[in-house]
Design goal:
alpha/beta, 7-stranded antiparallel β-sheet, 17 strands
Length: 673
Amino acid sequence: SNSISLDELLKALNLLIHGSETDKLRFLFQVYDVDGQWRSLSTSLLGGSIDPDELRTVLKSCLKESAISLPEEKLDDLTLALFESADKDNSGSITFEELKAELETFPEVMENLTISAANWLKPPDLDQKKRPTPRYLTRTYWHNNSRKLLFLCLYSVLNLLLFIMNMMQYAYGGPWLMLAKGCGICLNLNCTFIMVLMLRRCLTWLRATWIVRILPLDQNILLHQMVGYAIVIFTVAHTMAHVMNFSMSELSVCRLWEYLLTTRPGIGWVKGTASITGVVLQVLICLMVVCSSTFVRRSGHFEVFYWSHLLYIWVWVLLIVHCANFWKWFVAPGVIFFVEKLVGIAVSRMGGLYIVEVNLLPSKVTHLVIKRPPFFQFKPGDYVYINIPVIAKYEWHPFTISSAPEQQDTMWLHVRSMGQWTNRLFEYFRQSDSQAMSNKRLTASLRNRRHETRNQICAKLSENHRYCNIKCYVDGPYGTPTRQIFASEHAVLIGAGIGITPFASILQSIMYRYRMRKQNCPNCNYSWCETIKDNEMKLRKVDFIWINRDQKSFEWFVSLLTKLEMDQADEEPEGRFLEMHMYMTSALSKNDMKAIGLQMALDLLAKKEKRDSITGLRTRTQPGRPDWGKVFKKVSEEKKGKVHVFYCGSPALAKVIKAQSEKFGFNFYKENF
C-alpha cells in the first residue's frame, strides 16, 4: 500500500524482539524485497528460490550504501562465494532452508537481526539515568595521570604562595592594590613559564632522560594552553584591580582615561608608561588567546593562529617596559629560548633540502619526498616544521615524519589539505603542469619564469605522481610521546584518518628491527622469529588499528601495510608480533540488517582468496566503528606485558579512547604538537 500503519509497525517490532529465528529470517527476506521486484525472493518464503542475479543485485545495493567501490568482476566473485557456500545441493538456486542454514553458521546474525531494527526504539533503562562517577574522580584516572596531576598541584601551590607573599608586602595600600600586586607576581611567573613549555629542543632532549618519568613532558602543549588561560585570568584581574584602586583613590589628580591612556600619572619605571603598556598588553594577550582557540585553528584558518601568536615577541618587550622586575624572571629562559630559535634557523638553512618527488593521494593528501641531508637524524614519530618558499615565504608548519629513520636517502611527509597553506600546496602540484604548458607567447621575463617552473616540475610519472626539484627548509626534528613506544611491552597504535602518519614511521622502524630477529630456513621458505629482548626494543606485541571514513583513504599507506604483512614470519613462539585491524566507518556494520549478506560474502571471499576485497591486505576490513570495550578487553587478555595506547587523530575520538583505556589501566598517549 506504499504506507506503514502503526499496527503493522508494532507487529514487525514484536516479531523481531519475540519471534523465532525462522520468523526473523522471513522478515529479512521482506526487507530485501524493497519494491516488489523481488518476485522469486518473495515467493521463496512460500518455497521459492533465489538465483545468482537476485543475490548480486542485493550485494550491489549494499556496496553502494556502504560507499565501497569494487570492480564488476569482484562483485561477481562476492556473489558466487556466498551463493556457492549457501547452495548445498548445487541446484543453481538457494531455497529458504539453505539460506537459513548458511546464516546460522554465523552466530552473531540472529542477535544482529534483533539489535539492528529494534534496539533503536527501545526506551532507555532507568539505570542509565543515574549519573556515573565523574571520570576525574576515579582511582584509575588519578593513577594514570599521576605525574600531570602532581605537577599541576605544585604549579598551583607555587602560584598561591607567590600571590599571598606579594599581597602581604602591599597590605598598606588596601585590598585592590594587594590584589593587583598578587596577580602581577603570578604574571611574572606564568609569562616566563609559558615560554619554557615551548622549548622544543630541550624537551626533546629531556625525553631521552630519566626526567620523563617524573615530569609530564608529553603534556607540554596541554600545560601551555592551561598557563595561557591562567595568564588571561591574572591579566584581567590585575587590570581591573588597578582601575578600581585608582577609582577609589582620593589623591588622584587625573581622569580615568588619562590614567589608562597617557603618561601623566607617571606610573612605571620607564618614563611612566606602565598604564599605556598595560592596556596594550591586555589587548594583545586577549587577541592571542582568541586566535589560538580550537574553532580558529581547526576551521581552515591556521594562518590566523600562526601570525597572531608571533605577537609574543611584542608581549615580552612590553612586559619588560611595563614591570621593573620582569627581566629578572625572563633573562635565563629567554636566553635559552632565543638560542633555540637561532639554532633552529641555522639548522634549517644548513645543507640543500629539496622536494624531489610528489604524489597526490585521495582526500587531497600530498605525499612529499624530501632529499634527506646526512646530518639529519630523527626518531620514529618525530615531527618537523617545514617552509616551502614557493608556497609561502615566511610560513612554517609542523608535520609528522612518516618515513622510518632507517630510510637513509629521503624522508616522507604526508600533508592533508585542511587549511589555506595545505590547500595551496596541493593545488600548486595539481595545476603546475597545465600552468607550465600555457601562455607560450609571453614576454622574455615571463618565459624565464616559466622555464624555472619547468625545471622544478621536471618529470611527470603519472597523473598524480611526479619528480620535482623544489627548495624547502626544515626545522627539527622534535620529539613526541610516541618515542616511548620502544620502551613498551605491548603497544596499541590507533590512527584515525591521516593520523596514521606517525605510526607509518614507527611501524617501518619496528619492522626493520624485527627483521634483525627473523630467521629463515636455508632449505625451504619457512621462517620464524626468535624472542629476544634488548635495550633498544622491549616490544613483545604491537596492535595497529586504523580507522578510515571511506575506502579511498586506505590507499595512502596500503602498499606500506602490504609490505609489513609480507615481512611477518610464518611462525612465532608467542604468536604474531604485529596484528593489524582496519575499520571503515562508512560501511554498513554487521548490526545493520541490510549488510548481513554483504559481510558474509566479504568474509567468505577473504577466506578463499586470503586477502581483503576492500584494501587488498590479508587483514579483513571491519565495517563501522570499533567497540573499544571489546578491543581493549581482548588486548588485556593477551597478557603480553604493560599496555601502552598511542593515539593520533581527532580530539573527540581521543576522549573516548582515553576513557576506555583508563578503565583497563592502560597508559594513554596522544600525539600532539
